[in-house]
Amino acid sequence: MRILLAEDDNFLATGLCLVLHDSGFSVDHCDNGVEADIALSTTPYDLLVLDLGLPGIDGLEVLRKLRHRGDRLPVLILTARDQLPDRISGLDSGANDYLTKPFHMQELEARIRALMRKTWQNRTTITAGNLAFDTNSRAVLVNGRTIELAPRELAVLELLLKQKGTVIHKARIIQQLSSWDSELTYNALDIAVHRLRRKLDGAGFAIRTLRGLGYVID
User: Fold this and answer.
1) Where in the chain is the domain with CATH 1.10.10.10?
2) Furthest CA-CA distance within the chain
3) For the chain, N or C: smaller number of CB within 10 Å?
């Protein structure tokens, strides 16, 4: 899953990026509203974490532009503006959630999981064959046994499960799992899929390759 973090406090942003990377997310960071607006216009994201006090273009204006384009991207506002009118304005402008600073990292991660879960139609468990995927903990179980996956392998599996039965082009997977400072290569993707197949042996389904197209869960 790919997240855009729009935050002008670089110290805070660095810490957030590290934590989110450790949780298996790809994260791009913008420290001003102009860059954030351009990134949102050109790159598909799964979530926007948005500070309101951005230089260049205010965070609310970034949000309004996003919704004016018809983009339904989930948005979590993360800001020091804690007054009731600010919260109402942010939510009415199209945000899905609003969290004020200072905050607990565990709460932020829980709110991110809740927003991401909406892309799974709010289901907490996704099944395929003998595999069960917990959308909260992101744990993968095959026949009731927990399977340890590397972050990249888990990210590939999530994308395939989300569109089970639909072919996902390799270029799209690469775009979704890359970040500005870490681009996934076709070779690395093939290796991740090869390892997934080995680790998910006995899961009761196949990750099939359609030559020249991409991958699909059968």
Assistant:
1) 125-217
2) 55
3) C
* CATH (one of 3.90.78.10, 2.130.10.10, 3.40.50.2300, 3.40.50.2000) for 2-119: 3.40.50.2300
Instruction: Give the CA-trace dihedral at 41, 189, 149, 23, to 10 degrees.
Output: -20
For residue range 114-127, list pLDDT tens digits in order: 898 887 777 889 99
Answering whether pTM is above 0.85, one says no
Angle at the Cα of 10 from the Cα atoms of 4 and 14, rounded to 5 degrees:
65
Which pair of structure tokens corresponds to residue 144?
């009731």
Residue type, 25: F
Degrees, nearest 5: CA angle 89-92-94: 115
Q: Provide the pLDDT for residue 36.
A: 97
* CATH architecture of residue range(s) 125-217: Orthogonal Bundle (1.10)
Question: Is residue 12's pLDDT more than 70?
Answer: yes
Residues sharing a CB contact under 8 Å with residue 109, sequence separation 6 or more, in sequence order: 19, 23
In three-state secondary structure terms, 17 is helix
If one compares 20 and 23, the residue with the highest pLDDT of the two is 20
